[in-house]
Amino acid sequence: MRLTSTRLRVHGRVWRDPKAVLVLALVAAIAGYLPTLNAPLYADDYIYLGASRELSFQHYTRLVFTPWSDDPTLTFTRDFWRPLSFLYFELVQPLFGARLLPYHLVNLFIHLASIVLVWLLARRLDSRPAVAAVAVLVFALYPGSTEAISWISSVNSAGLPLMLASWLVFLSATAPEAPAWNRLVAASGLFALALMFRETSAALLPAIGLWYLLVQRRGRLKDVATYRVFIPYAVPAVCYYLIRTKLFSEPAANSDIFGFGDHFDNHWWYYLKNALLPFRDPVTGWRLEAQAASGVVLLAAVPAALLLRKWGVIALTLALIFSVVPSAAAILGVGQRYFYFSTPLLA
Fold this sequence. Notes:
The protein has helices at residues 2-16, 18-33, 44-54, 57-65, 76-79, 83-96, 101-125, 129-141, 146-150, 159-174, 181-197, 205-216, 231-244, 263-276, 286-308, 311-323, 325-328, 343-346. By secondary structure, the chain is mostly helical. The longest helix is centred in the N-terminal third of the chain and has 25 residues, at 101-125. The chain is globular, with a radius of gyration of 21 Å.
C-alpha cells in the first residue's frame, strides 16, 4: 500500500509539472513515429524526388518561384505556389540522395517542433498545468496525423510550426495596452514564410483573430484601433494573392483542384465528424453513428459555450470549424492528413 501511494504521488507530480509532460509527449511521439522512419515512398513523394534529380537547379528554381508554371516533371507548380517546400527537395537532394531516412527525420523534427510550440501556446492561453498537458499529448499523438508526418512530401507541414510561432509572437505583441509593432511585423513575417511552405497555413488566422477579439479585446470591439493589429497580417496575405494571381491575370486557384461546389458540404462535415473520432478507413457500423454524433457535439459546443460565456472555448471552437474550410474546398478528395493544421486547435 505504501509503495502504491508513493507511485501515485510521483505520477501526480509528473502530471502537475508542465515540463515533465512536455518531455513525456516528445518521447511518446518519437516512440510512436519511430516505425515511420522506415516508411517507403508514397504517391507525390516520387514526383518531388524525381524532379529534383532530373531538372537543373536553375530550371527547377524558376519553376517553383513562378506561379502557374507548367512542367510535366513537376506538375504541382501549376496547382500550388509553395516555393519553399518545393525548393527544399532541390536543396537537400544532393545531401540525402536516395536515402529516405534523412527525409523522414526532417519531417519528424517538424512534428517535434510543433509539439513544443503547441505546449508553449497552451501555457500562454491558459496557465493551468492540465490544459498544457492535455493539449500537448493530444497534438503529439493524434492518430489522424500519421500521413502528415510519414509522407516525405509532407515537409510542407513546416508551415504549422511557423504559424504557431507567429501566434505566440502576436500574443506577446498584443499583451500590453499599446501593441508592439516591431513584434507584429515579426509575426507577419513568420506568417509569410508559412504561406510559402503551404498556403493552407492561413487556416490558423481565424484562431489568432478570434482569440484576440473575443478574449484579449472583447471590451473594445467598437474601437476601430482594435483592428489595426491585423494590418501586418493583411500585407503578406495580399502580396501572396497578387503573386499567385500574377497581378490578377490568373485565377487564385486551379478550378480542378479547389472550389466551393457540391462537394464542399460533404468534405466540411467529414473533417468535423472525424475531429474527435478519427477512425481509420473504412468506417462502418457503430463508428458511423459515433462520428456523426461527435460532429454534432463539436458544433453544439459553440452555443453551449456562448450560454456559459466561455469566450476562449467559443474562439477556439469557431476557429477549428473555420480552419477546415480550405481542406473542404479541395475537389480531389479528403483525408485525415489534411486535418494536421487544425489539430492544435482541437488539442
